[in-house]
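Worked problem 6 (solution included).
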Amino acid sequence: MRDEDVRQAEAEGKRYRLRIVIVSWNVREDLRVCLRSVSGGNRQDDYDVWVIDNASSDATVEMVREEFPQVSVVCNEENRGFAAANNQGLADADADYCLLLNPDTIVPEGGLEALLDFAEMHPKAGVIGAKLGNPDGSLQYSARRFPTVRAAIFRNTAFGRWFPGAHSPQEYLMTDWDHNDARVVDWISGACMLIRREALEAIGGLDEGCFWGSEDVDYSFRARSAGWQVMYAPEPVIVHAIGRSTSQAVVATIIRTHYGMQRLYRKHLARKPMTRSLGFVGVWLRAGLLICSHCMRLMVARVRSLLR
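Solution. The predicted structure is:
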């Protein structure tokens, strides 16, 4: 799974400057582009790249082994989820920094060096997120304030469409800030999350109770509780095509995301029994409404297709 140079480096006990962990599930073409961007225009001698594959059925593993022999591959026999798979890549990482990177991202030339240089200039930052952009060039709101009940009610729901002027989603997304300057934030997206070695040793890995969703918010909570800053870096700008994996299983993703949301509220936001109970009801009511909305859209699309 690894080429001779990597084996030799491990035998000599070499510490890398950066370990990159990429979790994949049936996104072979996106992963190919991502790995090319990581290896093209970025230094490679100090980088240790790992792909953790969650039982893909699209020949992802074969592609990585054939086209990127320098990349280490871990093949899970089942989909272990985002947090658990990332923890496999973080385990025993002998590197100054670890970067959790989604497979549907594109790293610009020199982007990794820019991110590491930013980390060196901000030693109190245990967790750092790069600026993310959508494929069309627009800004992706990857640095946010901690979630609130109001934000959950109005964001990506029918209530948000009925009341487009609601302030809570904008406040949550920090739309009042142009995202062109560095700052300490509440949490950053796990699509591109740089973790300092000392912070990883103090905080540990991601919460595997979050199969998919909220693990990045939880990790930011834990980092801040341990005395580390969570920072947003305006450079580099990494392109992120959201949802390439989750779009393959929409209903399952909604359920898993809301389970992670419920876990997050229970751990950090709703510690009293009453608020915990209300949070439970609210989270699963929201999940049910989203599933109903998704099914309605599918039904409408099928009817329109038949009418054509």
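Discussion: Residues 4-141+179-242 form a domain with the Spore Coat Polysaccharide Biosynthesis Protein SpsA; Chain A fold (CATH 3.90.550.10).
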